[in-house]
Write a structure and sequence with these properties.
heterotrimer, A alpha+beta, B alpha/beta, C alpha/beta, A: alpha+beta, six-stranded antiparallel beta sheet, three-stranded antiparallel beta sheet, 4 helices, 9 strands, about 20% helix, C: alpha/beta, seven-stranded mixed beta sheet, four-stranded antiparallel beta sheet, 13 helices, about 15% strand
Chain lengths: ~130, ~500, ~450
Amino acid sequence: MEIPDTLFYTSNHEWIRIEGDEGTIGITDYAQDQLGDIVYVELPEPGSTIVRGESFGVIESVKAVSDLFAPVSGEISERNAAAAEAPEIVNQSPYDAGWLIKVRLADSGEVGDLLDAAAYRSETAGE
Amino acid sequence: MIEPPGEDFGARLAFDRGAPGRRAVDMPRWEGRETPLPEARLLRESVRLPEMSQGALARYYTALARRNFGIDTGSYPLGSCSMKYNPKVNDLVASLPGFADAHPLAPEDAAGTLRILLELQGALGAITGLAAVSLAPAAGAQGELAGVLMIKRALEQRGDLGERRRVLVPDSAHGTNPATAAMAGFSVTQIPTGRDGSMDAAALAGELDGSVAALMLTLPNTLGLWEQGIEECAQRVHEAGAYLYGDGANLNAILGRIRYGDLGFDVVHLNLHKTFSTPHGGGGPGAGPVCATEGLAPYLPTPVVEEAGDGQLRLTRPAQSIGRLQQFHGSIGVLIRAYAYIRSLGIEGLRAVSENADLNANYLRALLRDHYDLPYDRPVLHEVVFSGSRQRRESDVHTYDIAKRLIDHGVHPPTVYFPLIVEEALMIEPTETEAREDLERYAAALVAIAQEAVQDPETVRGAPHTAPIGRLDEARAARKPVLRWQPAESGGPD
Amino acid sequence: MADSGGRAPTPYIPNTDDDRARMLARIGLPDMAALFQDLPAALRDPAIELPQRLAEMELLRLLESRAALNRTGADRPCFLGAGAYRRGVPTITAALTSQSEFVTAYTPYQPEISQGTLQSAFEYQSVVCELTGLDVSNTGLYDAASATAEACLLAARVSKRSAVAVLEPLHPHTVDVVRAYGYGAGIRVDTIKAAEAVGDAHAALVVQQPDHLGGIGDLEPIAAAAHAAGALCIVVAEPLSLGLLRAPGDAGADIVTGEGRDLAGPMGFGGPSLGLFAARQAFLRQVPGRIVGRTQELHGRRHADGSEGAPRTGYVLTLQAREQFIRRERATSNFSTGQSLLALAFTITLQALGPQGLRDLAELCYQKAHDAAARIEALPGYRVMERGPWFQEFLVRGPMPAADLHRSLAERGITGGLDVSARPEPEARDALLFCVTEATPREHIDGLVEALGTIGASR
């Protein structure tokens, strides 16, 4: 299971890549594997805000459905149209082409509360 | 299936068959006075529909029937569905012209139907030990909605609906239970299952307080197990001021042996297409009567059948009824079948049903326990839940693959991946209408697949190999939904 | 068991005493009673009073005698409609639907051996979309009224509003069903007399076509009024009339529901029924119930030479993440077992009729009903109330109060129209709502006209 060291994680299996005051959010390799064939992703409009720990969207596979929880608070600057159009790219490339949204962070201090790769690795090892 | 080799049968719908000008039926010609039609803007051009001769239509739907597997085809032990043989006489009596032609708004012309409904209410009340019955709900899930709405109305009358906003549901429950509670406006709290397969009593005690409207409980539960301590559970629920709702989907296991009312249930729905053997029809119609205590009787859905002092039968609206859930009176044709079933078995026949259903499930359990994991290793009632986790771990063969491979053995797979609390679940409910040798054949197929999973896993993973069609791409169906016929670019019927 | 000699206990249970003994030995239980050892002993095997069991021949006689208590069919002219209509269903419908592979299957959880159910459900969805003029259909709900209630719940979810408006005249039982579902979901139901009364509190405007008193309305301004208020337009349509009338989807409806029972088979005292439910594409993921989609095999069939053929087309249940068994308390509905067999029958009827047959049947219904109305209108003392265009139901005001007229007809062996005299619409005052369809026998209409004439003359 791939868990890149450069990202931060949540216990709900989202990842975030921090670049300056912008974050890119997706779901982890572990999450896509658990879900199976992803068939639908519902994402909020750019311009709307997300709140840390609250649901910002939904991801569906053939047999399961899961909420997407915001790792940080902020305003959405972009959403991945390709993932909405062809959700299988979330399975194929969860950390890269299969990203979901980009946000402008409301409070960069929130990043400190996230899991680093090592912590996330030990969490998923138990599951 | 008689089908030209290589034909992609599913690619051509009725819409793609036939030719303009063909027809399957003639309508009488109107020879009376002609009344002008309404103005043109209220009318339409013709509806796009197939144009097939009657023979071609018959062949098409016969070919489709042959691409189906029913209980008349072979063993069909879907857990939680009670796929038992459906006596043919029940279909015949339900379609007698006297019943078939009755108009729902003329109960005065339907004394025979009403008499049957009244007697069926009585029989279901006697079987469940509950005082009052409404036959109105169309199916189990609507029966659930009726029951939970009745509880809601009762709490409202009592004046504490404002506080009681939660419904407790075990984690082994059918998905309809939490979905129903939500439809009735309640939030859902899940109660975990204990090690013995019964609801965790301590967890339940921790949740039972003044915010609880009801506990929804399936008995026996979806693991095919009796809920240990059910009487104490009922008592605690009532002491907390809440109601005990019973999901009667598994009544087949205890038919005639014990009664929901005696155990302390306040309201229970039944699935007549399961326990009382009305055909499942490829997914309905069913019927989902609700049975309730005297205390909840005033809230039953409309209508109920009552006999007046003069012997006249009437459809009535209970005093505080939650109202109607369908335009008319329920799935009458299904109700007549269930009535005929009960009359043809009597109480001793119904007791033989539960006894043999449970015997059959335990026999399968005995035949298969060395070959598949049994997460809850207790004698069962009507169904047994195995886990394919050993096969997954050792051979990377999943329950999904095992189910598909069963098709090649000429039988229908069991319910899989339910209940959710069992990993790689195989939920088998043989029912009482399978013979000992049918069960032995089914078990032999599962044993063979367990061995094959070790020796030739690729064959299991590629199954089915003999079905009319191979494994289908479900992800493709969901990603780019194609949900209706569209005319081809050229050559469509228009 | 009451049976002796080791016989199987019923014709439907194969296990004999010998089978049972062998199975118990293998299980390791001493006797049959041990199967129920977990059940509380004090409550076990209660006395349950049920009538003596009947052999098949006895059962047939009993049920035939019950059916004979009903007054129906050729001997009992009946002019009720109001949501249940005697229809000219082709005989091939029952013949094909009753094949046991359709009848004795369940929900198609295993698509490889359920293509019959699945492909015919896809045919059904296609037929319903064509009839209604909408984009997507599910595989059918319980009946028109509960489908309408589900449509209201959908509208409330997408609009986040908590009231719906119901345009009168709409069948009172349908209103009752919407209220019951609305009670659960916390949705208020307002009945309104004109479409313009729909407001921005309403998630939807519900309109019946033809309306409860038989009238054909122009749906376009009604849908426009709903949309102007930000509400969805839900049309409860009678499906045979859709063979003649403009498709509601073309007139602006967002959701169309309807009662499919009477084109699937006999009225059967009103059930089991079939709730048509079609919607615009935008609401696809909010649609309740099951949906079937077209797909193809993951792999083509392997030929003898080892090569793989082209994948073949097949059908599966799809978009299931909406449903209760996956989404549980957040599902679009608790809907599970539905009305599959009726949906199959409905589809076969429509496909047997074809475009011309459907049109002919709808026009026959229209002509026959209008002819009957004209004959009644010609009787002294009777008026057919004018309410604009109508399809198969019409209001008759007679020379006496509606209830008395109904009783007088009953005394002559005729079940007259529905007594709607208590309704608020002025045309309904003192009126019976008569229904004549394509399947109403000519002699019944003659008998009705004669009886009405006699009753009128005796005043």
